[in-house]
Amino acid sequence: IPVDPFDLVIFGGTGDLAQRKILPGLFRRYCSGQMPVDARIIGAARSEHDSAEYRAFAAQAIREFSGGRRCEDGTLDDFLNRLEYVTIDARGTDGWEQLASLMRDGVVRAFYFSVAPALFGDLAQRIHEHGMATEESRIVVEKPFGHDLASARALNRTLATHFDESQIYRIDHYLGKETVQNLMAVRFGNMLFEPLWNSQYVDHIQITVAETVGVGGRGEYYDKSGAMRDMMQNHLMQLLCLIAMEPPAKFDPDAVRDEKLKVIRALDPVLPHHIVRGQYGAQDGEHPSYREAVGNPRTRTESYIALKTHISNWRWAGTPFYLRTGKRLKARSSVINVLFKDTPHSIFGEEAGRHANLLTIRLQPNEGITLQVTIKEPGPGGMRLIDVPLDMTFSDALGPEEADFPDAYERLIMDVIRGNQTLFMRGDEVEAAWAWTDPIIAGWEARNDVPKPYDSGSAGPTDAEMLIQRDNRNWRGIT
Ligand code: NAD
């Protein structure tokens, strides 16, 4: 179903994110007929270009990054004709009059802030000064949203002087993933899972977001941030919320976000011995170590983090949540594992084997959900038990057409145009997540904590194995 006609301004329209995600994503939506033919995209950035040059830039980005989506002949040219470019300075006066004159009345106006966060306030102010914001306008704000609670609050305040909360779309692209939304469908669309979804039946929950890449060209930014701020405070926290929240009364933005907020507020502070920080070493003389990659031989920033936390409420009291994320690990894998408790008694005897159910929600690669169930091993060998996966992998269940789901960014941008904030973080959620994160980071700083080294291509520091093994449990996914 096509969305309403819109003008989308991409501030930072020549940047890496626009090139790799936003422009190719918009093209894919155009290809699928969801983007109306009279929609317009206006790139706005500091470098000097005209619209023809910007179209050539977009064409190149689409060829390189749109994942080989096949479209009817001529679609790319039609799409490119929807593009304009304005040279603009977020902190100066250049370009603003021209941009304002391009905006049309009677269409949705969306402003995507794909620039450094230090410029968010300037952009909001200038949009306002030049009369471009209507009550219907939306702004899309990229991560990182603040560096700590104080800066996130300040940013929320700045944006709030010009825009209502209902107009602010804080992106966490993990929320745009098909499986993340399917997690809500599985939890709240079936009778099967929800009665068991609590500390009485769930032994523990693991969330792993493992990357094989290092910091790459983002070293300067990353070294001021680290895995806690760059991944844990936002992406893993959001996944934790969706796994742990109470059923909202309806699938509506504030109902969902109210429940997520309650989870964050119920999180226990993390004890120092329940957290492991790591930093990757070099590999085969081919890949630099973290310290080399960021050009700071003394850096104490972590590229890996594993922690254990609890949610202090009726549903989850006593159930540990183990969260870990890191760079330069042995596999690229984002996965949530819900490990159910064992049956209270085995009627088949201990020799038949004991098996607990395991629900695995894979975000990448190969999105899908599997449930390990116990059955009898086929054959005449007596009553021996084995685990088999009930596979809800979408491409198998739905066929390749339906399984070609939009990339997270595509879906989220279309949600912005539709005015649906369900998959975007609300200001109070972000602040609550920082309120939980800040004391952890302050503790490291007070103790001069040094991250544990780990080998590139490994599963992370051995201390992280011990963190979970002390509780007689093991990491799932990458081990
Ligand atoms: P980038 O450095 O590649 O691009 C920055 C863009 O901002 C360029 O188009 C540049 O012309 C423009 N710009 C810089 N100063 C300006 C000014 N004064 N006035 C107007 N335009 C100006 O950055 P990026 O990687 O595209 O990241 C953009 C935002 O998205 C950042 O907030 C970043 O944290 C966030 N983000 C990026 C990625 C990614 O994969 N690149 C992922 C997640 C979040």
Automatic annotation (TrEMBL):
Keywords: Carbohydrate metabolism, Glucose metabolism, NADP, Oxidoreductase
Magnesium listed as a keyword: no
Pathway(s) it belongs to: Carbohydrate degradation; pentose phosphate pathway; D-ribulose 5-phosphate from D-glucose 6-phosphate (oxidative stage): step 1/3
Residue ranges occupied by any Glucose-6-phosphate dehydrogenase NAD-binding domain in the UniProt entry: 9-182
Residues holding substrate: 173, 177, 211, 230, 327
InterPro entries in the record: G6P_DH, G6P_DH_AS, G6P_DH_C, G6P_DH_NAD-bd, NAD(P)-bd_dom_sf
SUPFAM superfamilies: Glyceraldehyde-3-phosphate dehydrogenase-like, C-terminal domain, NAD(P)-binding Rossmann-fold domains
Active site: 235
Residue positions binding NADP(+): 46, 143
Pfam families for this protein: G6PD_C (PF02781), G6PD_N (PF00479)
Keyword Transmembrane in annotation: no
Residues covered by the Glucose-6-phosphate dehydrogenase C-terminal domain: 184-476
EC numbers: 1.1.1.49
Catalytic activity reported: D-glucose 6-phosphate + NADP(+) = 6-phospho-D-glucono-1,5-lactone + NADPH + H(+)
Gene3D superfamilies xrefs: Dihydrodipicolinate Reductase, domain 2, NAD(P)-binding Rossmann-like Domain
Family under the similarity heading: Belongs to the glucose-6-phosphate dehydrogenase family.
Protein's job: Catalyzes the oxidation of glucose 6-phosphate to 6-phosphogluconolactone.
Entry protein name: Glucose-6-phosphate 1-dehydrogenase
Gene from which this protein is expressed: zwf
